[in-house]
Specification:
127 residues; alpha+beta; Pnp Oxidase, Chain A
Length: 127
Amino acid sequence: MGYAAGMSFTPQDLELIDRKREVEIETQPPDGPVHRTVIWAIVDDDQVFVRSLKGESARWYREIQANPAVALHVEGQRFTASAIPATDPDSVQRTSDGFMRKYAGDPGAEAMCAEDILDTTLRLEPT
């Protein structure tokens, strides 16, 4: 399927992604095999955001830089998306707030909001 402007996740998709503590993201470099890794994802205002805990050194994040076509795997469902940099202050803040809300009490939540990884914030646009 080609990219169509204005596509969005269904309310059911968003509820599922929002409810799951961990999801798997599938990435594929231009010249390599499909790779899946477990990440955190948050939903804010009908949009899905992710961020790399390891910053730009994370394999999945590097693969997205080369090929932004991704898929999220959640409870046996596969959602294809395009990973769009979301480094504007509003998106960064919404993502940080989302991590603090969804993962409240988890030490990882603060790590996900560290200044040096904010630039790895991505919005997943359904394809």
